Amino acid sequence: MLAGEGDAIGVSNTDPYATEPTADNDWVKEGPHLMILMPDPTALEGLSTDPADPVYVMWKGTPYAHIMVRIAAEDVVSIRAGSGASASDAGSIVSSLVERLWASRQ
Questions:
Q1: What is the β-pairing status of strands 27-29 and 77-78?
Q2: Could you tell me if residue 93 is inside a domain?
C-alpha cells in the first residue's frame, strides 16, 4: 500500500467484490496510502466515504470496511470530483481518530 497501486486498474470504493468499473461503483485508483482496520465498526461513524478526502472509509457497511489514509496526494486519482480537502489534513484527522479510540478503550 505504501507504493500505491502502480499499473493496477484500481478498485471499487463501495463494492469489495467488484472486478471492473461501472457507473455506480465509485471506482478509484489510489497512490501511496495506509489502511487501518477497526475492530468496532462504530468507530467509523462520522468519517467521510469520499475518496477525494485525505482520510475516508472504504467499503463502509461491509465486513471489509477500513480507513484509507492518503500519504501522497499527488499520486491519487479518483473518478469522482474532489471535495477540496488536502492531504495535509490527514495527520490531524488520524490523530483525532487515535485519541477517540484510546479514550473509548479506557
A1: antiparallel
A2: yes
Tell me, rounded to whole angstroms, the distance of Cα 75 from its chain centroid: 14
Integer angstrom CA distances of residue 73 from 5, 13, 32, 41, 53: 13, 17, 8, 26, 10
Per the listing, cell 471492473 goes with: 20
Average pLDDT over residues 7-23: 87
Domain count along the chain: 1
* pLDDT single digits (tens) 30-58: 878 889 999 899 999 999 999 888 899 99
Which secondary-structure segment (H or E) carries 56? strand 55-58
Taking the C-alpha atoms of residue 70 and residue 86, their distance in angstroms, rounded to an integer, is 10
